[in-house]
Amino acid sequence: MEDIRIWHLDEADVAPAVAKLHKINARAVAHGLAGGYSYRLGDVTRQPVYLDDPIDPTGIVGDRKPDYFKVTQEFIVEGEPPKLNGWSFLATLTWDAGTLVTRTASGFTGTIEPGTIKAEYCDHCKTERQRNDTYLVESGDGTRRQVGSTCVKDFMGHQFSPRWMTGSDLDDMERSFGGRVTEVASPETVLAWAASLTSTTGWVSRDKAEIERRDPSSSILRDLIFGTSPRAREARRALQPTDAHKAEAATVLGWARNLDATGSEYLANVQRLGQVEDVSPRNVGIIGSAVAAHHREAARAQERAAAPVSRYVGAVKDKIELDVTIKSDTAIDGDYGVSHLYRMVSTEGNVLTWFSSRNLNLESGQQLRIRGTVKGHELYHDVEQTKLTRCKVLEPQAEASAPSVPVPEREAC
Ligand SMILES: [Zn+2]
After folding, report:
1. 131 C-alpha to center of ligand 1: Å?
2. Please, what is the average pLDDT of the chain?
3. Which of 64, 188, 255, 370 is most buried, by the most CB atoms less than 10 A from its CB?
4. Ion ligand 1 residues within 5 Å by Cβ
5. Ligand 1 centroid, distance to 163 Cα (angstroms)
6. What's the 147 CA to ligand 1 centre distance in angstroms?
7. In angstroms, what is the span from residue 162 Cα to ligand 1's centroid?
8. How far is the CA of 28 from the centre of ligand 1 (A)?
């Protein structure tokens, strides 16, 4: 993507800026990257500066002579950030105390096999050294590379910064304190605070927070646990976890450790963090969000349990009559024309199927009473189904919620 920047540089900064651009271009050439920058000089502006003027330090006051001029050089940079073509960013890989945590690009739906990546290694420059983060990139043909923070710029361009890295200056500062401050909390503690926070405000994801312009729950949780500000202390008093919250934390932790993370990078992260002794501030939000994830999972399980189990109906050759709701109509093109497979569920929750050689224009959700003969029983995807034949649609059931509406006469327009 073409990048154009217009800078107004102090004269003294012009030469270093030029040198820096030359260096970027030279590096691009040396690494075989596409892109590079050119620059041109624009106007020189002399702006008068008046000292000791409390009202307007730059305004012209009477016939005073300016104390000095601020001379700036307009400096225009054009070009494209150097990078290898065709690579896209997949995830940031972080190892905190040996635990892998992946932060995937939004829209990423695949999985990252922990066995395919190597802590602190860069595939590009083939070096292994102390790295907090490495980055996973993928080419158009599906080749993946794990690269360090300098090399990732060759792949993604020098403007590279994933969404959650913007404003990461504070993260960098935290890291620069290096080892002197070690803040960790146990997963039990994090989850107890998360249970308290979630029961009060629900869990607000980063994406949702961004749209609604509010603080994401992960930041609030981190502040609750590690914050030292008066506001954090106040929040700690208000949200002190109760015994119920602690019990919920234990339940969620048990769930997190034993869940099936197949196909979900998020759940894989939750599971890994559920097994560590210490959770760092950076990972508090991921394990903390497990409270809400467990809520959703429990609600789904309850829904499944509440749904009636389908049982076989009647015996073969029995003639039966029952009320059903149409679930689906599948048209099947065969040797004798198009037939229709109707899938239905009875009021008791039993699933029935009927192959009709005629199209009865039955729609999903439609309720009716049918009479038919049991042709057989079969187990399909673990669901007991009764096959019917020679069905007859009797009076459709009265639909209490949809009174018949007279069709209005068509008006001329
Ligand atoms: Zn490298």
Report:
1. 10
2. 82
3. 370
4. 122, 124-125, 148, 151
5. 22
6. 5
7. 18
8. 15
CB distance 389 to 370 below 8 Å: no
Write down the pLDDT at residue 78: 83
pLDDT of 175 above 50: no
Using CA atoms, how far apart are residues 380 and 175, in angstroms rounded to an integer? 56
Give me ligand 1 centre to Cα 94, in Å: 16
Alpha carbons 8 and 14: distance in angstroms, whole number:
9
At 287-334, the pLDDT tens digits run: 999 999 999 988 888 877 887 888 999 999 999 999 999 998 888 887
Ligand 1 mean position to 123 CA, how many Å? 7
pLDDT tops 60 at residue 375: yes
Half-sphere exposure for 293 (CA within 13 Å, toward CB): 22
Q: What average pLDDT does this structure show over 134-140?
A: 88
Domains and CATH numbers, the chain: 3-83 (no CATH), 87-165 (no CATH), 187-304 (no CATH), 319-396 (2.40.50.140)
The predicted structure's pLDDT at residue 41: 92
Q: What is the mean pLDDT of residues 125-149?
A: 88
- Ligand 1 centroid to Cα of residue 149, in Å, is 7
What is the residue whose two structure tokens read 């105390």? 97
Q: Which amino acid is at 129?
A: R
pLDDT category at 60 given cuts 50, 70, 90 is low
Residue 399 pLDDT > 90: no
Q: Which amino acid is at 164?
A: W
* Span from the CA of 396 to the centroid of ligand 1 (angstroms): 70
